[in-house]
Amino acid sequence: MTTVRLRPRHGFFVFLFFLLACSVGPHTLLAQEPSTPTPAAASSVPQTDENFADFSGKGTFYTPGSDQGAAQRYRDLRGGGTLEFLRWSSNTDTRWWSIQADHTAYRDQRYSAAINDFGKINAWFQFNEIPLYFSQLTQTLFTTPPSNPFALRIDDAIQSGLQNKTLTTAQAAAFAQPFDLRLRRRVAEFKTTYSLTPNLDLEAWFWTTAKTGNQPWAGTFGFGDAVELPAPVQTRTTDLRLGIEWANERGSARLGYDGSFFRNDVETIVWDNPLRITDSPTAGPVQGRMTLWPDSNLNAGTASGLINLPARSRATAYISIGNWTQDNPLIPFTVNSALPVIPLDRQTTAADARVTSTNFTFSSRPVDTVLLTARYRSYDYDNRTPVFHVANTVAYDTTVEAFADGGTSPYSINRKTFYADASYTPTRYSALGVGYTREKIDQTFRFFDTTTEDTFRVTGDLSGMSWLMLRGVYEHANRTGSGFDEQALDDIGEQVSLRQFDISDRVANRVSIVTQVTPRSSYSLNGSVTVGNEDRPGTVFGLRSNDSRSYEIGADYVPRESISVGASYTWEKYTTLQASRQANPGPQFNDPTRDWTTDGADRSRTFVGSMDLLKLAPKTDIRLSYTYNHAESLYVYGLAPNTTLPPVQQLPPVVNELQRATGEIRYRLNAHFGAGVVYWYDKYTVNDFARGTQTLTSIAQPSFLTIGYLARPYTANTISGRLTYYW
Q: What is the per-residue pLDDT for 490?
């Protein structure tokens, strides 16, 4: 399939208006590197110190059966013409400014402007649009009525046919309509620093992120009636940071305010039950309902300081005290009108938490060969939300049942971390170090009240020589929990030997070595090895072990300034062992012959190669690159030697393979003009038993209805012609 078309002209006028706004108010701009991702297409920015405008016209061609949404996941490869890149800056003894633009008027466009009036104002602004294209091959029975664009409805005739069994789900699927499943994120950032005096600065940082579109979502009325939904997304996060900072040669002090405000225009999602046209106290409701992300506010005050001490020592301190609130309306326990109404304990969440964090550091070099560093960090999340009392609840919108816990559990956490490191430099090119870290976490409503992890590390560093760099780290960590109550697991019907992976006892060892050898200035070899082992003593059911291996080797060859060649190969493997027991309450519950395990293995191989030939031919730059990644996941199930479970059917491996190649040739016509051609090749293949087309051949499955968002292959070829103007 070919997608080649001209872009609408209005995008260029939007860009001209942006340039005009930047030139009118230079003191509203800010000098800082962009903090949001760069579009993948920006890899072919001309490499020059000159000002330039790069215009392009491109087309993208797909092989039959390609998932164009997956090919354009975070970028926009539609064909047409645009201002691809603009780099315009000026630098004098008193002022520097810059204006940039990438891929204007497309879904992955970006604009930024910066100014630094030395000693007075430093400002930066950026607008960045980032697409998330799930798939263009999705389809659904749901539509959104004009009266309620955040509700998902199915035609009543289809619901009636499915309830009365005059229509099968496979027959109903024929009425599904195709649609593009995509999200769009728009980020605007502004940051400025104004110097009141040589020692006193005022800072302001504002950024806002808006998300619109749809994303995959899941709703269920029980194990035999689940649906996949294109959930509407319409959110905005606004962050504000203000500060005043004083500094001189002795130290600095800063007072600040941080605010973060999240707003969601779609607080509740409602969707039709495809199998029901009427509410029933046993068969289920006509529709489902759930809340989405609630509005929330965070306000915090901060104070920090730095002081230079005698004996080449320095101390820093930081403290933040904030309050997090959320008070959205609560929805009833059920949307099923055939069930009795259960009174709510209160009408809003009334959520409230005090968040306090600190960070103190001290470093000293008492003698030239010794460096000492210590740091203490704490984070306290004090949940002050009142308990929401619940006597009865509703399961699957069909059954009213007692709630054994009697109410909600306001989870709180307090984390304290202490670091200490010492480094000794016996010679000019070497350093030896030892370190210790203790992390203690106290938390409520977890099976361990407290977990403590002690980590010891040894480091070695050989660097500074022209031909050799060698660094190594060994870490040993031991995490133990206290306050464990087996009765709490027994009360909820779980095995008392079950452990949660994030708080279970753990012993971990990790070795990492990085080296670079440069026999001659024209070429170098580099490599790294990382080995990690993790065991969990005391865990019978749950994650028992988690190990990792990683190896990398690379080489770079630069025989002269105009030629550079590089290549690297990385191999990674991650393995896990998990254990469980398939048992119902009664005699099965303590029967070891019903135990089973899962061995997980994830492997990845990556090769990256590149070559730059700059001015090897007169006025000509050539750049080539190639990336190959092969990833494979395998899950192997095992049974106890004397098992009473039925034989296991092993699953096939999940395989993903991505190839990406780029080629670029640019020719400098004269002092002001250049021309070029850029080629991108992307090929993705996948074999996924859970989300593959070989398994989910229809959106209608025996127990659920999907939207057809699957793992599909694609092959895309993008050709772009470039005309560049330099000044």
A: 80
CA 687, 692, 693, 695: dihedral to nearest 10 degrees?
110
Residue from 20, 15, 131, 24 nearest 78 by CA: 131
User: What's the mean pLDDT in 631-643?
Assistant: 95
Beta strands in 198-225 (DSSP E): 200-220
Q: Give this prediction's pTM.
A: 0.89
Q: What's the CA gap between 131 and 624, in Å, rounded?
A: 27
Residue with tokens 């500074």: 464
Residue 547 one-letter amino acid: D
Q: How far is 535 from 320, CA to CA, in rounded Å? A: 36
Q: Going along 536-672, which residue ranges are E strands? A: 542-560, 563-581, 595-614, 620-639, 654-668
**pLDDT at residue 221, as a whole number:** 85
Gap between the Cα atoms of 399 and 397, Å rounded: 6
Output the pLDDT for position 261. 98
How high is the pLDDT of residue 494?
86
Strand partners, 511: 474, 531
Residue showing tokens 């350093």: 431
In this model, does residue 582 exceed pLDDT 60?
A: yes
Measure the CA–CA gap between 506 and 543, rounded to whole angstroms.
10
Q: List pLDDT tens digits, range 517-551.
A: 999 989 999 999 999 999 999 899 999 999 999 99
Model confidence at 674: pLDDT above 80: yes
Residue corresponding to tokens 């029980």: 222
Say what the alpha-carbon torsion angle 493, 495, 499, 501 is, to the nearest 10 degrees. -70
C-alpha 246: how far from chain center: 35
Phi and psi at 203, nearest 5°, equal -125, 145
Per domain, the residue ranges of the chain are: 142-175+199-346+376-398
Strand partners, 460: 432, 472
Q: How many residues does the chain have?
A: 727
For the segment 60-79, what is each residue's pLDDT rounded down to a tens digit?
A: 999 999 999 999 999 999 99
Quote the tokens at residue 580: 């469980």
Is residue 230 a contact partner of residue 188, using CB atoms and an 8 Å limit?
Answer: no
Largest alpha-carbon pair distance within the chain? Answer: 87
Nearest by Cα to 718 from 29, 68, 121: 68
Average pLDDT over residues 71-97: 95
Q: For 62-76, 333-347, 492-506, 613-627, which range has the lowest pLDDT when averaged over its residues?
A: 492-506
Q: Three-class SS string for 674-715?
A: EEEEEEEEEEEEEECCCCECCCCCCCECCCEECCCCCECCEE
The tens digit of pLDDT for each residue in 264-277 reads: 999 999 999 999 99
Separation CA 162–CA 572 (nearest Å): 49
Strands 251-264 and 268-272: unpaired
Alpha carbons 162 and 301: distance in angstroms, whole number: 57
Q: In terms of Cα–Cα distance, which of 413, 415, 414, 433 is closest to 423?
A: 433
Distance between CA 708 and CA 334 in Å, rounded?
Answer: 28
* Residue 91 identity: N
Burial profile 314-338: b = 16 or more Cβ within 10 angstroms, e = fewer: ebbbbebebebbbebeeeebbbbeb
- Cα gap 56→54, rounded to integer Å: 7
421 vs 494, more confident: 421
